[in-house]
Design goal:
Length: 258
């Protein structure tokens, strides 16, 4: 117990030191994070049930958002479930979605000021899950704090396809000619119809667990994003890991393809 308390005290000192080092440095406005490694964490921690990893990972989300608040981040996107994950066996998918519902309801609690939006193909979710998630997010309407997009049933390719469809639906609903839109279709027609238009430009993407690929995450928005891969599994992610990532971001020269 004494050793644990000492370790926590030393970590708190290091957090304050890192926070001072990144203070005043360039920082991302929009941070997107891939919450990867929950099942591996559960196995490594000796749990037979991988759901324990998702439970601990879900509990970490609120902490992460508070750390982002402290770091003056304006917008966060959390990738909690991909559209590919929806093909998992029902006995695995069902409990995972329940944990996601609990996590979303927790971060939408009345004592927080975060503005939550659920993005993704919610029509693909089983049962009443989409309604549960939407109802929780609706309770945050009008808040002025950190903007948080929770990606559930999300796929970057699917989002681009849906954005094109939405652009044409809006155009034709307003009496426009589809052929005319096809001839004048531009980048803005996609950017304006993403699941979360406010997140059209992502500055910084973090992926936990050591995997070094985007797996279709925010394909459109990540064109000029900086990417940071960290070995830590998501349930073990700490404020130190976020601050180190922000320090790495601040040291980079963003050229936007120029």
């Amino acid at each position: 117990m004494a050793l644990r308390a000492l370790r926590a005290a030393l970590e708190a000192v290091y957090v304050r030191r890192l926070a001072r080092k990144v203070e005043g440095l360039p920082r991302p406005r929009h941070v997107a994070i891939m919450l990867d490694g929950n099942r591996r964490w559960a196995r490594g921690a000796g749990h037979d049930d991988p759901r324990e990893g998702y439970r601990v990972g879900g509990a970490k989300v609120g902490d992460f958002l508070r750390w982002c608040d402290a770091a003056q981040i304006e917008h966060v996107t959390l990738w909690m479930l991909s559209d590919d994950n929806l093909h998992r066996p029902a006995n695995e998918l069902g409990p995972l979605i329940e944990i996601i519902e609990e996590t979303v309801q927790s971060i939408c609690a009345a004592d927080e000021q975060w503005r939550i939006e659920i993005i993704g193909s919610l029509d693909l979710l089983p049962g009443e899950s989409a309604s549960v998630l939407k109802d929780a997010a609706d309770r945050t309407t009008g808040r002025t704090g950190l903007k948080v997009d929770v990606a559930v049933g999300y796929g970057g390719r699917r989002e681009i396809v849906d954005a094109v469809k939405t652009a044409f639906e809006k155009h034709t609903a307003a009496g426009g000619d589809p052929q005319e839109l096809a001839e004048n279709f531009d980048l803005e027609h996609i950017s304006d119809n993403l699941y979360s238009p406010a997140g059209r430009d992502t500055d910084f993407i973090i992926r936990t667990s050591g995997e070094q690929r985007l797996s279709g995450f925010l394909l459109w928005q990540s064109a000029y994003a900086e990417v940071h891969f960290v070995e830590v599994l998501w349930p073990a992610f700490r404020q130190i890991d976020l601050l180190r990532a922000l320090r790495s971001y601040a040291a980079r020269e963003r050229r936007y393809g120029r």
